[in-house]
Amino acid sequence: MLVRRADKLAGSAVTMDGAKSVAMRMMVGRADGAPNFAMRHFTVEPGGHTPRHSHNYEHEVYIIGGEGRVEHDGDFRAIAGGDVVFVEPNKVHQFVNTGAEPLLFLCLVPVSFDCGKPTPGS
Amino acid sequence: MLVRRADKLAGSAVTMDGAKSVAMRMMVGRADGAPNFAMRHFTVEPGGHTPRHSHNYEHEVYIIGGEGRVEHDGDFRAIAGGDVVFVEPNKVHQFVNTGAEPLLFLCLVPVSFDCGKPTPGS
Fold first, then answer.
1. Between chain B's N and C termini, which has fewer beta carbons within 10 Å?
2. Is A83 on the interface with B (CB under 8 A)?
3. Nearest-CA neighbor of B84 among B98, B101, B70, B100?
4. What is the pTM of this model?
5. Mapping DSSP to helix (H, G, I), strand (E, B) and coil, where does residue B32 land?
6. Closest chain B residue to the Cα of A93, Cα to Cα
């Protein structure tokens, strides 16, 4: 049985253009045999942010802790632990840490898009 | 932009055979236009449990809080806040609250299975 905790996994720095002070941990992904979607854990340090971008697949996000701001196509919201955000396909989005503690969240993606291409980071 | 919190949503009692003291809140689902997978929030009260069953689609689970035990095809593990569990397709599984507080978790499912049937509770 696969049981994992983010705090027991080493994080990988996200080097994508536009990312600042972001680390990812794969919780359940293609390498584990995930058939449809992948669960990733992100840590955004104070002052950091994810890339501001869009793509033609969705995110479903659960904020674990910290404080931040999310953009969804020009709409901005404050986010904190317990919030769930649905990032629709093709919407410009970004997660920014606006607090003094790490912003921690789960971000799920489909494992494939465009009729079978592997989703980056899945 | 869709931002939701479980503590602002009314829960629906899970009436499936074998469920005891379980409530579900839909965080992101088919009705929201989720293209591939649905995020549901579950509360299992002390002494309660989810059905012990299997099906041919997976779960990806994030334990938010509380204490419990998960079965995955005869393998048992203690679970607590921060644990991620991958329930593979066709494995017998059950989540049991073994603590004195509610067991809270996210459980994600694909929105369809068997070549397009809507997944129950998606």
1. N
2. yes
3. B70
4. 0.97
5. helix
6. B1
Minimal CA separation from A30 to chain B, in Å: 12
B31 touching chain A per CB within 8 A = no
pLDDT the model gives residue A76: 98
Handedness of CA B62, B70, B57, B118 (dihedral sign): negative
Judge whether A4 and B84 are in contact, CB under 8 Å.
yes
- Please tell me the distance from the alpha carbon of residue B3 to that of residue B91, in angstroms, as a whole number: 32
With beta carbons less than 8 A apart as the criterion, state whether B67 and B97 touch. yes
pLDDT digits (tens, 9 = 90+) for A42-93: 999 999 999 999 999 999 999 999 999 999 999 999 999 999 999 999 999 9
Chain B: nearest CA to A31, how far in angstroms?
12
Question: Which candidate from A37, A70, A84 shows the least CB-CB separation from B37?
Answer: A37
**CA B35 vs CA A34, A43, A112, A121: distances in Å:** 17, 26, 12, 18
Is ipTM > 0.90 here? yes
Residue holding tokens 């989720």?
A: B34
A30 touches chain B (CB under 8 A): no
**First-last CA distance in chain B:** 20
Strand partners, A51: none
- HSE value, Cβ hemisphere, 13 Å, CA-based, for B56: 7
- Tell me which chain A residue has its CA closest to the CA of residue B3: A85
Give the other-Cβ count within 10 Å of A10's Cβ. 6
DSSP state of B9: S
Backbone angles phi, psi at B65, to 5 degrees: -170, 170
